[in-house]
Amino acid sequence: MTTLSSILEFNAEFVKHKKYEKYATTKFPDKRIVILTCMDTRLTELLPRSMNLRNGDAKIIKSAGAVVTHPFGGIMRSILISVYELQADEVFIIGHQDCGMSSIDTKTIIKDMVHRGIDESLFNTLKNSGIDMEDWLRGFNDVTDSVKQSVDTVRNHPLMDPRVPVHGLVSNPETGHLDVIVDGYTLVRK
Known about the structure:
Elements: H1 3-16, E1 33-38, H2 43-50, E2 58-63, H3 74-84, E3 90-96, H4 106-115, H5 121-128, H6 133-137, H7 143-155, E4 166-171, E5 178-182
Parallel strand pairs: 1-2, 1-3, 3-4
Antiparallel strand pairs: 4-5
Enzyme class: lyase
Cofactor: Zn(2+)
Family: Belongs to the beta-class carbonic anhydrase family.
């Protein structure tokens, strides 16, 4: 059985037995927050539970490293839509200890791409177009600094409401303990 067929089989039973009913909610976050966090599998259930969040409480955006890499990229767009359209009043950027993005080897990733069939000449084409793959794939050295940088990017974005607190935290992926790196309430501009 393939992964897809296994998922679809389970899904059919899930729907048939109306197991979805206990997750019913609206598109608006009940706690009026949006969270940007890492896609690390250890955080899937641990982070929401460690924050006392249930289905419907928050908008949760996931990306590698919980990093806002571009002020007009998809992550920032999702945060702005959460604030202006989906009634989120606070932003939480939550990185975590032992993040894979802190030890990423871009040269190895590029080698893996070539090994899986990506034409090596594509990297020269991209470089000539102004895209540096090593820079684009690059992670970070320190999760605390990365969280601070993402908080600054969001907080100082020209389209962000300056009255919205933007918090920065770092989670322990084993215990769920949260360390506050940036208390967004202290930085809110009136």
